């Protein structure tokens, strides 16, 4: 082990750093390849890591425990290193937003949020959004947890769907999605995790690699379900555009 006199930060070789972080050397290499940790200091052919790398690895472990994916963590780290001050909380500081999923957060003033939804930002809708965890208050600003969800909500409101109805649907969707997530987690835990351990693979890496399969299944099933529902709606509507008993 060496000591950097410039900043008095302890330094470690890769195996020692991996041991202190509670991960395998293979996982550490994977994180380095994904640019989740900064490059090490090079001294000839020897790579030296320091306490800053160790802190980053512990932060990554904490985010993984809270449900973030490695891809989402990479986005958060990139945003933090580019100066996004709101992402500091997402990278390990205490607070409600620390448990947010791996989505790109958006900072808005209350006025900008009101303009975004054209008068739909009522006290009741704000309360519902806070309860769902979509919004958090940070000083004079409001933080929305997901750029994608914000844009979808905006588009639905633009199409004439009341924001209250959008939020009600979001609550119902979350219940179904939680059940779907439990199905896939159980599937992987039962049939994949044990085999991965026997092969000496990192379970987290294996699950991250297979996660897009779950997304593909859900997308395909939702597409087919929407088609079935639309066909059913069409079949139930008689000529002339009226449905139901006359």
Automatic annotation (TrEMBL):
It comes from Streptomyces melanosporofaciens. It comes from the Bacteria. This is MerR HTH family regulatory protein. GO terms for molecular function: DNA binding; DNA-binding transcription factor activity. The keyword Nucleus does not apply. SMART domains: HTH_MERR. Pfam families: MerR_1. SUPFAM superfamilies: Putative DNA-binding domain. Residues 11-79 form the HTH merR-type domain. InterPro entries: DNA-bd_dom_put_sf, MerR-type_HTH_dom, MerR_fam. The keyword Cell membrane does not apply. Keywords: DNA-binding.
């Amino acid at each position: 082990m060496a000591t950097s006199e410039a900043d008095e930060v302890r330094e470690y070789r890769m195996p020692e750093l991996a041991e202190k972080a509670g991960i395998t050397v293979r996982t550490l290499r994977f994180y380095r390849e994904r640019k989740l940790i900064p490059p090490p200091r090079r001294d000839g052919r020897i790579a030296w890591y320091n306490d800053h790398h160790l802190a980053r690895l512990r932060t990554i472990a904490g985010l993984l425990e809270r449900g973030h994916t490695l891809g989402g963590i990479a986005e958060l780290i990139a945003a933090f290193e580019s100066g996004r001050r709101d992402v500091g909380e997402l990278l390990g500081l205490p607070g409600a937003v620390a448990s947010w999923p791996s989505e790109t957060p958006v900072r808005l003033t209350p006025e900008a949020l009101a303009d975004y939804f054209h008068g739909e930002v009522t006290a009741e809708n704000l309360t519902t959004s806070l309860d769902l965890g979509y919004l958090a208050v940070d000083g004079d600003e409001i933080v929305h947890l997901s750029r994608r969800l914000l844009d979808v909500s905006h588009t639905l409101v633009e199409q004439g769907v009341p924001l209250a109805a959008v939020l009600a649907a979001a609550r119902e969707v979350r219940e179904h999605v939680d059940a779907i997530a439990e199905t896939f987690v159980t599937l992987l835990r039962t049939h994949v995790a044990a085999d991965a351990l026997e092969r000496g693979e990192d379970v987290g890496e294996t699950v991250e690699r297979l996660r897009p399969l779950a997304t593909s299944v859900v997308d395909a099933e939702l597409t087919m379900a929407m088609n079935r529902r639309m066909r059913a709606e069409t079949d139930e509507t008689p000529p002339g555009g009226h449905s139901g008993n006359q």
